[in-house]
Write a structure and sequence with these properties.
By secondary structure, this protein is of the alpha/beta class. The strands form two sheets. It has a five-stranded parallel beta sheet with strand order 2-6-1-7-8, sandwiched between helices. A three-stranded antiparallel beta sheet has the order 3-4-5, with helices on one face. Strand 4 and strand 5 form a beta hairpin. The chain has one domain: P-loop containing nucleotide triphosphate hydrolases (Rossmann fold, 3-Layer(aba) Sandwich). The chain contains nine helices and eight strands. Bound molecules: cytidine-5'-diphosphate (CDP) (2 copies). One cytidine-5'-diphosphate binds next to helix 2, helix 4 and helix 8.
Length: 230
């Protein structure tokens, strides 16, 4: 039996790490178990990218992108099984938000400091409302640096690429493994090297290497770390 926790209002659990390290699949289950909302901040950067593509805003056009980021309304639906819908200006974009083409373009949005500031504002508002399990790249470093509950996931890049390859295959997309690995490595680099909100281990974060860990085993480690404080 997993340990039982009281419903923890306003609690912020920050999970950061590179693509495919297991953040979202773990965070969803953890959030359900703790009775907290799950906030997928990657989906927010994706939503701005998607909307820019739909409106044909050039990724060079910083001022229009920043205006879009400040005006866009992003909402998460209630978690059903392990899926959570994403709505942009009231429209369900859950599927469109995760295409490989879009994934390649997120970098142009995520590198712009003013867009990041708009996203951070929205994320803080969402988190402060009811607490959250929030995952991304800069949650423990920028969005909620004062939360004591910070985790940093990592895993071998080849394994992360294999996990992503499998996901794409299950979604009916056959992308060569070498391409998936190359794109993961490129995204790692841009996530780690950008000026604002760069991916790094936050001060006080517990580092979890998920290479040999199942999702359940990862949750057990997090719950064990939280046991004394909830
Ligand atoms: O699911 P996956 O790990 O592929 O990516 P994601 O979490 O959906 O995030 C998509 C992209 O948004 C990442 O490559 C990051 O560059 C960016 N991102 C970010 O800059 N800051 C965050 N807090 C979350 C995501
Ligand atoms: O959110 P992030 O990009 O960090 O990773 P994810 O979307 O949670 O996980 C990527 C894939 O790896 C998913 O298909 C998960 O089911 C799988 N996974 C796994 O097999 N073992 C883990 N410990 C974590 C994730």
């Amino acid at each position: 039996m997993p340990p039982k926790f009281r419903k923890s209002s306003k609690l912020i659990i920050a999970i950061d790490g590179p693509a495919g390290s297991g953040k979202s699949s773990t965070a969803k289950v953890l959030a359900a178990r703790l009775g907290l909302p799950y906030i997928d901040t990657g989906a927010m950067y994706r939503a701005v990218t998607l909307e820019a593509m739909r409106r044909k805003i050039s990724f060079e056009n910083t001022s229009d992108l920043v205006r879009l980021a400040s005006e866009i309304e992003i909402r998460f639906g209630v978690m059903k099984k392990d899926t959570q819908k994403v709505y942009v200006n009231g429209k369900d974009v859950t599927k469109a938000n995760r295409t490989p083409e879009l994934t390649k373009n997120v970098v142009y949005v995520a590198r712009e400091p003013k867009i990041r500031s708009e996203m951070v504002k929205k994320q803080r508002l969402m988190g402060r409302k009811e607490g959250a399990v929030m995952d991304g790249r800069d949650i423990g470093t920028v969005v909620f640096p004062k939360t004591p509950y910070k985790f940093y996931f990592d895993a071998d890049p080849k394994l992360r690429a294999r996990r992503r390859y499998k996901e794409l295959l299950e979604a009916g997309k056959r992308v060569p493994m070498s391409q998936v690995l190359r794109e993961i490595e490129e995204r790692d680099r841009s996530d780690r090297e950008r000026k604002q909100g760069a991916l790094r281990v936050a001060k006080g974060a517990m580092v979890l290497d998920t290479t040999g860990l199942t999702i359940e085993a990862t949750i057990d480690r997090i719950l064990a770390a939280l046991k004394g404080v909830l």
